[in-house]
Amino acid sequence: MVTTKAGDSVVAVSGLTVHYGGKAVLDNVSFAVKPQEIFAIIGPAQSGKTTLLRVLNRTEDLAATPQIKGSVEVLGQNVFAIGDRTQLRRRVGMVAPLPVGLPMSIYNNVAFAPRCAGHDNKAELDELVERCLRQAALWDEVKDRLRELGTKLSGGQQQRLAIARALSHEPEILCLDEFSIAIDPVTTARIEDALLELQQQMSIVLVTNLTAQARRLSQRTMFLWSGRVVECGPTEQVFGETPEKAETYAYVRGEFG
Amino acid sequence: MARADFRETPRTRAARHRQGGARWILALAVAAMVLPMLSIVGFLLWKAAPVLSPDFLLRAPVDGMKAGGIWPAFLGTLYLVVFSLALAGPLGVLAAIYLHEYAKESRLTKLIDLAVLNLAGVPSIVHALFGLGAFVAFAGMGRSILAASLTLAVMTLPVIIASTKEALGAVPRSFREACWNVGASRWATIRAVVLPNSISGILTGFILQVSRTAGETAPIMFTGAVFYKSLPEGDLFAYGLLDQCMALSMHLFTISTQVPGVSDGVSYATAVVLLGSVLAVNAASIALRVYLRTRKRW
After folding, report:
1. What is the ipTM of this complex?
2. Do B180 and A89 touch (CB under 8 A)?
3. Are residues A89 and B179, on separate chains, in Cβ contact within 8 Å?
4. What is the pLDDT of residues A66-75, one digit of tens each?
5. CB distance A62–B188 less than 8 Å?
6. Residue from A77, A118, A96 nearest B179 by CA
7. B61-67: long-range contacts at Cβ-Cβ below 8 A with a sequence spacing of 24 or more?
8. Any CB–CB contact under 8 A between B88 and chain A?
9. Count of A-B CB contacts under 8 Å
10. CB spacing of B184 vs A86 below 8 angstroms
């Protein structure tokens, strides 16, 4: 296992181009994510944000066959050279836009990934389940009904369950794909607080089309549009009065998109 | 437009009548299905009543098949159904899992899907000829329970593949992706999430094939079923794999068209046994499905 040195990038993408048939979903995208930072990716729908995340944990080419060029290094390793992708996915947590509680108990939702990785010590699992549910700000609501089905929780609870699940395999990078589009503002705020806590332990890649959310949480922001990087820089600059590109200025103020 | 009260206007009255009319037409369609079915079953039971008894099921035919029971045919059908589904069931389910859960979409998988759908629509007499050529003649099995079961298995395999794929497809893709995202392998995902939530659908497709296998006559006619075979009564293991056998569907055909002087009751009672066994299996499957659905988890 390659460990990253302090100061190294945990994600380094360079010249990434993804084609489906003749259609480019991502076009020459380059960026890097540093340790313990929240890196926001903003952009309108169809700009390639989700595809980008799915390349990071190699789920994009599970069902389809895109043509991928460029280099993607996660935690110092070329992701296209990794033989056992389950190893990669354990180190990269992923939260999908729509809340998904797996059709199993709340406890098993969180214990599933560690069990897949071969951990089955009951006491250790109990402790891990509690820790992940606490980190996801869900523990207090579900601690008395861990045996109930994850699918029966409310939308906001299921999304926090999904975050707990993504933390259960102790990732070094946590990717969230528009986690708040299906949940209420109060839950969103609770999750945002949780993310700021988690930032002490891991890097977070936050894909969002709520520009205000990117502004609140992130240190750096990348503006992606139609598969191209328009601008990537410190969040204050991207959202400030003098971003590099006029499109950025207009987009973050809701003038187009 | 005045909407001050809830009085009926010509327009709302017309809408109410249309709604009533639609309801009647739909109810009539149900009646058109249920009434013939009830009259068929009722008619069969009424005609068969004088002959039906446990003895009818457990005795061999006598007097040139004009009287007596149907034991050899009943046991033969049981053998054919069990062997053919034991072959086609696991194979079909495994193939469907591969096609639906592992294979990436490509020209080849599209071709396979097309082949499966077309095979499922091939008339049974064509399967019969294939079985005659491939199993009876080429593989040298002769006319036997084995050859007939294999022929029936070939006939049911594509249907089981298609129905299993459908059941797997009913499990939302988001569940699979959630599992993959936490580092679960495809197989772990299938075990933990896909199979437990599609098993009732898989079983439904599987058991529908029981009635089809029990009822088909053409595929076994050339490959293993005979008009008459004498068999010790009451012995469940009386047939060997390479024996020829009698079968209910074939027996019904024979005594109805080929043997003069069979009393009506015998034919009708045979039909009732065939129908009754299929209904019994279906009822069991419905019960199992209801049980499994109570455990469905979303």
Report:
1. 0.88
2. yes
3. no
4. 899 999 999 9
5. no
6. A96
7. B61/B228, B64/B259, B65/B227, B65/B228, B65/B251, B65/B254, B65/B255, B65/B259, B65/B262, B66/B259, B66/B261, B66/B262, B66/B263, B66/B266, B67/B263, B67/B266
8. no
9. 76
10. yes
